[in-house]
Amino acid sequence: KILETGGERRRSSAAVRVAATFGQGGAAARIRPENAIYKDVKMDANHDAMSSEELLRKGRESLRCIDFLNMSLELMKTNAGGDETYNLSRPLEKDETIDYFMSHSWHDDADEKWKAIKRVAEDFKAKHKRYPTFWLDKTCIDQSNITDSLKVLPVFVMSSKKMLILAGTTYPTRLWCIWEIFTLFSFSLQEVAIGKVQLEPFTTEASGITEESILNNLKGFQVDNACCYDPNEEAKLKNVIGIIGKKTFNDRVQQLAASVINSRGQRKFMPLSSS
Q1: More exposed terminus of the chain, fewer Cβ within 10 Å: N or C?
Q2: How does pLDDT run across 157-178, given as a tens digit for each residue?
Q3: 134 contacts: CB under 8 Å, gap ≥ 6
């Protein structure tokens, strides 16, 4: 299983003890749960479970990124992956940090999503004189061993400088997308996590849904309205969330979404310096 809770042992000390230091361009990033809710979540309690040390080792060994110039509209049109898409990514170089962990829904419009990605990449290049790197699930996860890769999701999230949230019309209803946000905020102080998020909403005229509606749907998130592509993965995540408490999870996600959206609005309308 990807994630479980300790059931009757829930009252014991923190069940998740994920602590390691990753080099990030010379700086160290601690990977450990900051949120008390996430500390109740236990990595697979079955006999074949990985220890936290094994999970961290697996995360380090499997950490990959894809260069923007290896990405395309065709790549973003389907979630189907294999050796060909995996080979588009590469291991990180020494002291390299992934620029963006990409959180997105494969059910959103690919054309508009690709336009948003290109805007982000060109803005990044204008500032840094190079194109960014991304963590993209279908290219950076070994498609022959998806389950083990998803166990180390916190490592992938926390090994990236920023989380790029590409929020299309279906994003607020995709449970894995919401879990990615929850993971970031669980392993970082809230003010730090907010600073790591770059929120890019997008929509299509045909959908009749505005960007404002997408953001409102995020702020009004309800786990009962969210689902996964794989019903087995959905059952596992909802089992975890059920023990955390659906109301607690909903409230937490709604608060996080509101904080991220408010921060985005403040940055967007920040007056230019007169200097």
Answers
A1: C
A2: 999 999 999 999 999 999 999 9
A3: 65, 66, 68, 71, 98, 99, 100, 101, 102, 164
